[in-house]
What we know:
The protein is of the alpha+beta class. 46% of the residues lie in helices and 11% in strands.
Amino acid sequence: MPKIIALITISVCALLAFLAGWWSAPVLFGPSDRPLAEEAAPAATAPAPTAPEPVKSAAGGPLSTLDLPRGEIRGSPTLGASAPKVTLVMLTDPTCSESRESSASLARLLDENRETLQLVWKVPPPDDETDDEVYLAALAAHRQGRFWEIHDLLAASPPDDLSTAAIAKSLSLNAERFAADLDDPMLRNQLKREQQAALAIGVETLPAFFLNGQKLKGARPYRDFANLMGEALLFAEQALEAGTPRAALHETLARRLHPAGRLFHDLMIEAREVQPAAARPAGRKPVVHSFDEKVHHVPIDPAAPTRGASQPIVHMVLFADFACPFSKRLAPTLKLALATFPEDLELVWYNLPAPDDERAHLAAQAAMAAHGVGRFWDLHALLFANQDALESADIERYAAELGLDLAVLRRALETGVHRARVERDVALAERIGVQATPRMFINGRSVLGARTFAEIEPLIREELAKAERLLSRGAARRGVYEHIMRRAAAAP
């Protein structure tokens, strides 16, 4: 688990230093290539790098140091009152700065509302910044009652390296059980279910907080949390006076206060599966939108950037713009779709920058330059992550982070060597009638806008079933899309 390793070492040093009151401790654990059962402490140590102090609360320490009840709701870690009037669902990535900035406010809020407030942590939507293995490690630590400890470790500075056994030892975990839990399919199923739930209720940016369903997003000062907490308590008291049982407060209030209504409680607290439209009970409104039945003829350029299955039978052809916020919003949906159908689904990227936005054109050309050296998706992630900074100097900085040859990139942008490629993508979009981004074609079926995975999953499964029928009739995997496009071209 190299990603986890890379995210925890300095964090461990920082937390140990804070608790022990000194800042020059040696590195306690080192990497090993041996199996976990054979892991031994290294013979030599090295000085620990200087690390910032862990996030502290006004109550005097990180969240893990608060003397409050711990528990879980359907596998999700909780902290605070066991019979709360206010349930605060938090979707955070503790390795991200915006999430870290809220930790002190949450700790203070908990300390001041010990009898009425409970935190519930849920896995946030997938993104290109944080590896799922980080969240799996957090859930695995929770199984041994140490979630809030690993949460605080991840909230410190990114580290260099730390072995699995050392992570377990530093958190007082059973190392063999920790390693086994990391490989447990049930834990990965929980992660996927919670990611789908987050997308289904409309979580697009982190951190996101919901107090009995009322949303508060972004890194906020304590007063914002306190104000919303006061309002949430008032609603809770009114509901109790009206006869609502305390155990039903969240379900009752979330139905009123969150746009998704009862669905929010079902997904966030009851941990129910996000249902595709076809599986929903009769009489319930489906989450999925209707899609055009027409199959469009959308050719795939073999030189276009792709990711996903090596021999796909379903192709998502995407026209997108690095400067378009809706294209950026679609990224978690695409990541989850590729993770759900790893053997059958491929994403194909076409550039469609706005005609009057030179920044968008510049970003598209830079991305194609990176594609030429096999780094398209790496630069793709940085361009979307820094969508408000797409000038030449900004793009060169991102390229430098990836170790690309800046002289070659600069020359490519100055000469416009990749402009023709971008213009070919634009011409294709015009030919098939694409005028706005993002626009996606799933085996030729049109999907417009930044849709959630819950919305497009039924369409992917429908096209997958069609493709599998073609396979059963003798079609080759590599010939499925070609067959579908031939029929689309022949259609009136």
